[in-house]
Amino acid sequence: MASPTRPPVAPPLGSLAPSPSSSPSQFQPNDEQILAYAVVIFGFWNVPGVRHCINPLKLFTIGWHELCHITAAILSGGRILKVTIDPQVGGATIVEGGRPSIILSSGYVGSTLLGALFTLAGWDTLVSKVMSFVLAIGLLMPLVLVRDKLTILLTVFYESLLIGFWFIDHGGALRWYCLFVGVMNILFVIWDVADDRFFHKTNDSDATQFALLYPRIGPHVWASFWIIFQLGVLAAFSVLGIMVFKVPSVGS
């Protein structure tokens, strides 16, 4: 008589690992990657010959910063006299009236908050997909003021890159893109102060403007304050990303 056979037993649920082809890679940013991005951005922001390569991203970053100034000026009763958005000389918003302290603060605060959201997207594919729409629109808006053919072509390239990343690793590649944009925005004060103090760009940094508004406090103190503020927010949102979007461990 044939011996009875036992039906196959399914392995424990904890041992089932997701297939690499069906789920995004579990990329999680770390301090070294964020620092590497900051170094790369600083170089591309300032080094002659290569700084034009990120013009569209610089326009997006500077444009948002100036938009925060404009919004605060209008809400506080001010009147906009002139707005400059240029990847080479920086941005400037000339305002009449309003509340100067609020208008000045809004630029760095706004850049920090937007950068924090993009940085947070570096921990989650769904968040990065949502933020990619913000970036797609933000890259196109400055073209209203741009006539440089190279910048227009580069904008098309960055938009194409954004679309292409949707199809790489199930959209997981968007995390790298969003993290790069996040670091660029959340550390904007560093690029702004460097433009002013070391590269002598035409437009003053907001730190210099704060020193003019409050003469008893030097621009280096204001710069240090805003750098510490932005680094603190970067650290806070990095911890938030680790806590909220922690990759679940696969048990046996």
UniProtKB/TrEMBL annotation:
Keywords: Membrane, Transmembrane, Transmembrane helix. Residues 12-25 have a biased composition (Low complexity). It comes from the Eukaryota. The chain crosses the membrane at residues 102-120, 126-145, 150-168, 174-194, 221-245. It holds the Pfam family Peptidase_M50B. Residues 1-28 are annotated as: Disordered. The keyword Membrane applies. Residues 1-11 have a biased composition (Pro residues). This is Peptidase M50B-like-domain-containing protein. It comes from Roridomyces roridus.
